[in-house]
């Protein structure tokens, strides 16, 4: 079991969730909709100076789901190379 964590600009949230729902049957995920922070290039604070916002999405998936997410996020990053899409996996135990 893996925890997939995606941190990205809100502008691509629909692209990411549509991909997940289309490619991973029965996926369940949680979204934290308004996340402040600073990546490699710019801050995203949701204010007048730094108006953009990020979101965090996480889901627990098996190895096949993790591989699909990795491939899909790579495609989305190619389509939107300036949106700062990050993907992390943590291996976890299902007790």
Major β-sheet annotation: 4 strands, antiparallel
Structural class call reads alpha+beta
Approximately how much helix is present in the residues?
Answer: 25-40%
How many DSSP helices?
2
The side-by-side strand order for the widest beta sheet comes to 2-5-1-6
User: What shape does the CA trace take?
Assistant: globular
> Averaging pLDDT over every residue, what do you get?
91
What is the element string, with H for helices and E for strands? EHEEEEHE
* Computed Rg: 14 Å
Task: Report what the structure shows.
This protein is α+β, with helices and mostly antiparallel strands and 95 residues long. It has helices at residues 13-23, 63-79, and strands at 2-9, 29-35, 37-38, 43-44, 54-61, 86-91. The strands form two sheets. It has a four-stranded antiparallel beta sheet with strand order 2-5-1-6. A two-stranded antiparallel ribbon has the order 3-4. A hairpin with a 4-residue loop joins strand 3 (37-38) and strand 4 (43-44). The longest helix has 17 residues, at 63-79. The protein is globular, with a radius of gyration of 14 Å.
Summarize the model shown.
By secondary structure, the protein is an alpha+beta fold.
SSE blueprint and pairings:
Layout lengths: L1 E8 L3 H11 L5 E7 L1 E2 L4 E2 L9 E8 L1 H17 L6 E6 L4
Antiparallel strand pairs: 1-5, 1-6, 2-5, 3-4
Pick out its properties.
single chain; 95 residues; alpha+beta; two-stranded antiparallel sheet; 2 helices
């Amino acid at each position: 079991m893996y925890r997939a964590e995606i941190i990205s600009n809100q502008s691509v949230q629909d692209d990411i969730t549509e991909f997940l729902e289309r490619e991973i049957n029965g996926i369940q995920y949680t979204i934290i909709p308004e996340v402040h922070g600073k990546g490699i290039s710019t801050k995203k604070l949701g204010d007048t100076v730094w108006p953009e916002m990020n979101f965090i999405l996480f889901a627990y998936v098996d190895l096949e789901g993790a591989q699909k997410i990795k491939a899909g996020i790579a495609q989305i990053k190619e389509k939107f190379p300036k949106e700062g899409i990050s993907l992390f996996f943590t291996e976890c135990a299902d007790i």
